[in-house]
Design a protein that fits this description.
By secondary structure, the protein is of the alpha/beta class. It has two domains: about 5-270 and about 475-495, Aldehyde Dehydrogenase, Chain A, domain 1 (3-Layer(aba) Sandwich), CATH 3.40.605; about 275-460, Aldehyde Dehydrogenase, Chain A, domain 2, CATH 3.40.309. Helices cover about 40% and strands about 20% of the residues. It contains 18 helices and 20 strands. It has helices at about 5-10, 60-75, 75-80, 80-100, 100-110, 115-135, 170-175, 175-185, 200-210, 225-235, 245-260, 280-295, 315-325, 345-360, 395, 415-420, 435-445, 480-485, and strands at about 25, 30, 40, 50-55, 145, 150-160, 160-165, 190, 220, 240-245, 265, 275, 305-310, 365-370, 385, 405-410, 430, 450-455, 475, 485-495. Strands 14-15-16-13-12-17-18 form a seven-stranded mixed sheet, with helices on both faces. A six-stranded mixed sheet has the order 9-8-7-10-11-19, with helices on both faces. Strand 10, helix 11 and strand 11 (about 265) form a beta-alpha-beta unit. It is globular and about 75 Å long. Bound molecules: nicotinamide-adenine-dinucleotide. Nicotinamide-adenine-dinucleotide (NAD) binds near residues 225, 233, 252, 253 and 270. Pfam families: Aldedh. Keywords: Oxidoreductase. This is Aldehyde dehydrogenase (Acceptor). InterPro entries: Ald_DH/histidinol_DH, Ald_DH_C, Ald_DH_CS_GLU, Ald_DH_N, Aldehyde_DH_dom. GO terms for molecular function: oxidoreductase activity, acting on the aldehyde or oxo group of donors, NAD or NADP as acceptor.
Length: about 500
């Protein structure tokens, strides 16, 4: 890929990104922050400034929550039949599908992820809205036998205003799993996207005006987590917070939400293991494991950043893994057609990842491959594999959120499972084996919300629940469980 090819590929960056000043969406209107203050957006592949977004804070959040509260009870939304609400969700899927290239390109330029990856996220996004479009007609209550002179039944009702706060590492990847069920259940929402990757959400909000969604049902406030985010969590009229982010912030969010007993679901960080057994298809496992910790430049909550390989195949597997890392997962411009791994999302991320690798070096670990910044423009980091680690090292225990894997070996299933579970986190794991019995036994013993066998990272459209054990989260997204998270049950008892 020459500089000219890259320049040509970067012509895909949508004009929307270059607006002088982006605006928030409150009650169907596009508005600046009441303070008039703004925050910058930067292109991680070049380090260049891209645009400015409003720095919303508590007064803006209050206006958005009031708009959502009004819209929640307005017959234009509250009075819709399940069929009609389902049709609105299909319309949202339609506009996402029609503008998928644009939304994916916006995410690529703001978060540094390859177009191929953001394209996959957008394809999944519209499917998730279609999946949930089927739910408004199926939010059943039950009738309960209370004797001849009484009628008892339950109703499944929406919660009210739902605040949605999520990360920068896949804005259009993470939002649909929260927004679609919230709307399917009949709630109104206030969205607070990550401050470094808000543009796709602002564009989506514009596109929602093309659907029959009434004004005020979906509002967007941009700004810092400590200002706009915290004000949303603390707002007394918010019934529920759906949060994706780091474990540290998630714990803080739960504390703030406690005061008003606001419900929270938390999708948090991970330090997920990949377990490679000697009987696995090692070439396939090497590709899957490399994708597991290098994909999205390692900025994936489910990154399989701890690589556990059976001792007898260690050398063979490491050779396959390092060659996959070099050949397939070398960093490149997010817009270049062959790029599988793009940039880290900010300079702070680059410094954080470098700091972790330096700490491993200082503690006596060996860098098998990578271990340095890639190029001198933008925030790229070479895929890195670290060997000779000990269980207490920071690179083994803490989430790095960069393309860095740590390698250890195991002797048998018990040893593999013990190492896999030796972590405060429990988001995901991948198991690589050709033995069905090993696959099932190990999957049952791993303390994680998702176990992939002979694959990694597949999310499908929300049919399977997703969420964390231990400090990786609280509650589930997807599957039937998610509808309980966005509704509440009311009992009606009638004297006949
Ligand atoms: P972060 O916790 O810094 O920020 C996440 C969101 O929370 C942002 O929108 C931010 O503005 C907001 N926020 C920050 N402080 C806040 C506060 N005091 N009150 C309310 N909101 C606040 O996380 P990040 O660095 O953007 O994202 C990376 C983390 O997210 C990683 O730990 C990753 O594992 C995790 N993650 C988890 C999942 C999952 O589904 N489990 C998915 C993606 C990312």
């Amino acid at each position: 890929m020459t500089d000219t090819d890259t320049a040509e590929a970067r012509r895909q960056i949508p004009a929307f990104v270059r607006a002088d000043l982006h605006l928030m969406h409150i009650d169907g209107k596009r508005v600046p922050a009441l303070s008039g203050e703004t925050l910058p957006h930067t292109d991680p592949a070049t380090g260049d400034d891209l645009a400015r977004i409003p720095r919303g804070a508590a007064p803006d959040v209050d206006a958005a929550v009031r708009a959502a509260r009004r819209a929640f009870t307005d017959p234009a939304w509250a009075g819709l039949s399940g069929d009609a609400r389902g049709r609105v969700l299909h319309q949202i899927a339609d506009v996402i599908e029609a503008h998928a290239d644009e939304l994916a390109a916006i995410d690529s330029v703001t978060m540094g992820a390859p177009r191929r990856l953001t394209g996959e996220m957008l394809a999944e996004a519209s499917e998730i809205f279609r999946y949930y479009a089927g739910w408004p007609t199926k939010l059943f209550g039950t009738t309960v036998p209370l004797g001849e002179d009484r009628l008892g039944y339950t109703r499944r009702e929406p919660l009210g205003v739902v605040g949605i706060i999520w990360g920068w590492n896949g804005p259009m990847g993470q939002l649909p799993g929260k927004l679609a069920p919230a709307l399917a259940a009949g709630n109104a929402v206030v969205l607070k996207p990550a401050e470094t990757a808000s543009l796709s959400t602002l564009r989506l909000a514009e596109l929602l005006a093309e659907t029959d969604l009434p004004a005020g049902v979906v509002n967007v406030v941009t700004g810092l987590g400590s200002e706009a985010g915290e004000a949303l969590v603390a707002h007394p009229d918010v019934a529920k917070i759906a949060f994706t982010g780091s474990t540290a912030t998630g714990k803080h969010v739960q504390k703030v939400a406690t005061d008003s007993l606001t419900r929270v679901t938390l999708e948090l960080g991970g330090k997920s293991p990949a377990l490679v057994f000697a009987d696995a298809d090692l070439a396939r496992a090497a590709f899957g494991v490399a994708a597991g910790f290098c994909g999205n430049a390692g900025q994936a909550c489910v990154a399989t950043s701890r690589v556990l390989v059976e001792e007898s195949v260690r050398d063979e597997f490491v050779a396959l893994l390092t060659s996959a890392m070099a050949e397939v997962f070398a960093p490149g411009d997010p817009f270049a057609p062959g790029t599988v791994v793009g940039a880290l999302s900010t300079r702070a991320q680059l410094e954080r990842v470098s700091g972790y690798v330096d700490s491993a070096r200082a503690e006596g670990a060996r860098i098998l491959t990578g271990g340095e910044r890639h190029g001198d423009r933008g925030y790229f980091y070479s895929p890195t594999l670290i060997d000779q680690v000990t269980p207490g090292m920071r690179v083994v225990r803490e989430e790095i959120f960069g393309p860095v894997g740590v390698l250890t070996t195991f002797t048998d299933v018990d040893d593999a499972v013990a190492q896999a579970n030796d972590t405060d986190y429990g988001l995901a794991a991948s198991v690589w084996t050709s033995d069905l019995a090993t696959a099932h036994r190990v999957s049952a013993r791993i303390e994680a919300g998702t176990v992939w066998v002979n694959t990694w990272g597949e999310m499908s459209t929300g049919q399977l629940p997703f969420g964390g054990y231990k400090q990786s989260g609280l509650g589930r997204e997807g599957g039937l469980e998610v509808l309980d998270a966005y509704t509440q049950s009311k009992s009606v008892r009638i004297a006949l």
